[in-house]
Amino acid sequence: MLFTPFEIKETVDMFLRYRLDIRAITLGVSIMDCASSSGEETRRRIREKLLRVASPLVRVGREIETEYGIPIINKRLAVSPVSLVAGGEEDCAPFARTLDEAAKELGVDFVGGFSALVQKGFSESDLRLVSSIPEALSSTSRVCASVNAAASRSGINMDAVRRMGEIIRETAAKTADRDGVGCAKLVVFCNAPEDNPFMAGAFHGPGEGEACLNVGVSGPGVVKAALERHRDASFDEMADIIKKTAFKITRMGQLVGMEAARRLGVPFGILDLSLAPTPEVGDSVARILEEMGLEAAGTHGTTAALAMLTDMVKKGGVMASTHVGGFSGAFIPVSEDEGMVAAVRSGAIGIDKLEAMTSVCSVGLDMIAIPGDTPASTISAIIADEMAIGMVNNKTTACRLIPVPGKKAGDWAEFGGLLGGAPVMPVNRAGSGAFIARGGRIPAPIHSFRN
Q1: Rounded-to-integer distance, Cα 98 and Cα 155, Å
Q2: I need a labelling partner for 401 at 20 to 30 A (CA). Which of 2, 84, 199, 432 fits?
Q3: CA–CA separation, 327 and 195 (whole Å)
Q4: Minimal CA–CA distance to 160: which of 133, 197, 198?
Q5: What is the pLDDT, as a whole number, of residue 198?
Q6: Same-domain status, 220 and 172
Q7: Confidence (pLDDT) at 187
Q8: How high is the mean pLDDT in each 10-residue block of the chain (451 residues)?
Q9: Which residues, at least 6 apart from 302, have a Cβ–Cβ distance to it below 8 Å?
């Protein structure tokens, strides 16, 4: 891949002034061959394999940062869904602790894959893993969990949705001293991608190879700066500006991904070109939407603006990389985006508007703090709505909801680091208990019957 001197200068300017970075390089590792008849033996094999395969990851990341001057914010691991290898273990939390210990020894920031795929039903292993999530996330610091509860081809497993409302409440209670931060490491998916480099939902899918290197880039500040220079542009011109900017960002990510994979001796997997915000000023997706002409993110027109932003990011990115995957588009987490926090505080945006926005963005209701006394059935109903959007629109959607123990709407919840902090948002107080209690499965939509 060749770069002109002008492109190099332009990219350096993006790093120095507009917070362009590689958000994560994530090494996916299959642990399917680690399964044995003994949980203790399986965990020993998992630990040994991760230490063997992933030992160069952090070093390689730092070398590339130094040689290319490109910030790589996180070095991460993703493993096969643990429910597939846990076997007959009653308590799966020890697997999470094994992953956490390996992550600390390797120096990686997060490890994903404490996961179960239950879109059509629970196996016994799935049930045990899901029940272990509160203990697993409260007793570890770097492990992330995910559950795929719905898919366009199979419908919504409402038994799983009901159980996840309870699990989220339990996880929040076990990390009550930290504003329920355990829930920030737990995602409920519809149509979960198997090649996602972003936490908390990363896992190494069963359809993946032995190992691969996935990359997530991010550059909200770069896109906003490009739009600032063209404030009189029409929608057509604005779309073209976003597309060309996304192309440049993705080219940089492709370079880093290919080089990291080569040095690690594994195949390059995918490049996720999502715009992923951070709590830092100047690194916000909400501020991009406002730069398009909205007084505040969440006002009328926000969904249309986000739809165009997401589509143009994808169109620019697919021309720059042969292997685009993961989510790719634009994330709208509340606590991780200072512009979203400001919009919530001003009353410009609420959960209902965020839900509408998820129909056109990369993922879903992300990093949303809600009152600690929110019933499990209400949490499940919020998840069900989000699963329905993903199922019907044949896209990935997800929920990362945090019922903050002891706090009510308007209070502040602090999660720290890249997770940021957020105002606690009100939820609809009308009950959904009888709806959630029905159980069973919401069938797949008619358009799922495609072969």
Answers
A1: 33
A2: 84
A3: 9
A4: 133
A5: 83
A6: no
A7: 95
A8: 56 56 86 88 94 92 84 89 87 95 94 94 93 95 95 95 97 94 94 86 89 85 83 90 85 83 90 76 83 92 93 83 73 85 92 91 88 96 96 92 95 86 93 94 81 62
A9: 289, 294, 349, 353, 357
Residues 143 and 185: beta-carbon distance below 8 Å? yes
Q: Are 60 and 84 in contact (CB under 8 A)?
A: no
**Pick from 150, 85, 73: nearest CA to 114:** 85
- Could you tell me if 179 and 107 lie in one domain? yes
Q: Are 76 and 25 in contact (CB under 8 A)?
A: yes
Single-letter amino acid code for the residue at 277: P
The tens digit of pLDDT for each residue in 330-341 reads: 778 888 888 989
Give the domain-ending residue among 157, 190, 223. 190
Tokens (6 digits) for 85:
């290898």
Environment class of residue 426 by beta-carbon count within 10 Å: exposed (0-12), middle (13-18) or buried (19+)?
A: middle
Owner of token pair 């951070």: 278
Task: Report the amino acid identity of residue 121.
Answer: G
Q: What is the pLDDT of residue 228?
A: 83
Give the range of the structural domain holding residue 79, as residue numbers without chain letter.
Answer: 27-190
Cβ atoms 201, 214 nearer than 8 A: no
pLDDT in tens, 339-371: 989 999 999 999 999 999 998 887 889 899 999
pLDDT of residue 441: 93
- Assess whether 281 and 352 both reside in one domain: yes
How many domains are contained in the chain?
A: 2
pLDDT score at 24: 83
Residue 44, classed as helix, strand or coil, is: helix
316 within 8 A of 246, measured Cβ to Cβ = yes
H helix runs in 124-234, sequence order: 124-138, 158-174, 220-228
Q: CATH number for the domain including 224? A: 3.20.70.20
Cis peptide before 54 (omega within 30 of 0): no
pLDDT at site 19: 58
Residue 181's nearest CA partner among 172, 193, 169 is: 172
Give me 356's structure tokens. Answer: 């509408």
